[in-house]
Amino acid sequence: MIEFFRQLTFAQPLWLLGILAVPALWFLQKREGASSSLAFSSLAILGSLGQKPRMRPGGVAFILLTLTLVAGLVALARPQHRETFIARKASGIDILLTLDLSESMNIPDFLPPGARRPIPRIDAAKQVLKPFISNRPNDRMGLVVFSGQPFPRCPLTLDHNWLQTAVQDVQINDIAEQGTAIGSAIAAAATRLDARDSKSRIIVLITDGASNSGKLSPKQAAELAAELGIKIYTIAIGTEDGRVGRNIMAIPRQEFDVETLQEIARVTGGEFFRARDFRSLEATFDSIDQLEKSEARISSTVQATDFYPWVLGFATLCAFASLLAQALSLPPQP
Questions:
Q1: Model confidence over 216-244: pLDDT tens digits?
Q2: Which pLDDT does position 261 carry in this prediction?
Q3: Which stretches are transmembrane (predicted)?
């Protein structure tokens, strides 16, 4: 209710100055009433005058006349309720987040600031992606996850709450087929970016391993993306110690394929990043954020709803009620 009155305004506010005359009318009405009481020294004299005169409008009738005047002036001032609708338009940058869900992403070798225990790579990626998405509200963004095969989780959208939910909900076991199909993941992301009419199309590839499955090699997929004008930022996530020191659920141990990730970035005009700890992972996304500047495109529309017909109707009702009150105040005929 408070917000409603904050958005209430008047198209012709100068008419409201007329309300300042209302106290003067009250003063004049009281003054006239006082002078009429001295016209006769005795009420008995009135009986000899025959038909009694009409009484001046007073009491309820005068109050109603005052309300009529005030409401009429308010109606002339044209009260309006104005609402501003803000529409956010896409900046022209489309970003497809492509996240590795292979078993090795469960290796806990990332220690966030202030934490006592390291967290899995997948959780570190989720934490860092959250502010990255929030800081780019004008970019269309989507999510593709992959392990042995790719799977689209969220289409390109400006609804970043939906995307945030999709990112936080992904789990390692979401895809039954295990492995690391980097080429297929790039192809799936590129397909979803291909039909978009945007000034910049980007894939952010987050992985911790070498490609070992899929029908398309990473290099072939990168060349395809380059032909479509898609830029790929590749991120190798995880520590060498975490990789060498553990064997997650009997997944064959494999080293980072840094050369392939660097080649993907080079072919597409992107960049390769190495994130060995939480701070370097944050710095990686800060760098991407700076490399791909997003422009805010916001339009606002003001919708005004007039309330003067309602106020004018109220003034009319008060006027009729005042006339009725005056009629009822007449003395009976002799």
A1: 999 999 999 999 999 999 999 998 765 43
A2: 95
A3: 12-28, 58-77, 307-328
Q: What is the pLDDT of residue 23?
A: 80
pLDDT value at position 304?
77
Predicted TM-score (pTM) of the model is: 0.63
Nearest to 315 by CA among 2, 90, 77, 127: 77
Name the residue with higher pLDDT: 176 or 278.
Answer: 278
163: tokens are 């995307």
- 10 beta partners: 79
Of 306, 314, 254, nearest to 104 (Cα)?
Answer: 254
Q: What is the reported pLDDT for 228?
A: 92
Phi then psi dihedrals of residue 180, to 5 deg: -140, 95
- For the chain, give the secondary structure using H, E and C: CHHHHHCEEECCHHHHHHHHHHHHHHHHHHHHHHHHCCCCCCCHHHHCCCCCCCCCCCCHHHHHHHHHHHHHHHHHCCEEEEEEEEEEECCCEEEEEEEECCHHHHCEEECCCCCCCCEEHHHHHHHHHHHHHHCCCCCEEEEEEECCCEEEEEEEECCHHHHHHHHHHCCHHHCCCCCCCHHHHHHHHHHHHHCCCCCEEEEEEEECCCCCCCCCCHHHHHHHHHHCCEEEEEEEECCHHHHHHCCHHHCCCCCCCHHHHHHHHHHHCCCEEEECCHHHHHHHHHHHHHHCCCCCEEEEEEEEEECHHHHHHHHHHHHHHHHHHHHHCCCCCC
Q: Which residue type is seen at 155? A: P
Neighbour-count burial of 58, counting CB atoms closer than 10 A to its CB (0-12 exposed, 13-18 middle, 19+ buried): middle
Q: Which pair of structure tokens corresponds to residue 33?
A: 């009433």
Looking at domain 92-295, which CATH architecture does it have? 3-Layer(aba) Sandwich (3.40)
Pairing of strands 140-146, 93-100: parallel
Q: Which residue(s) pair with 207 in the sheet?
A: 236
| 283 φ/ψ angles, rounded to the nearest 5 degrees | -65, -35
Confidence tier at 324 by pLDDT (50, 70, 90): confident
Give the integer Cα–Cα distance in Å for 113 and 115.
6
| Residue with the larger pLDDT of the pair 62 and 174 | 174
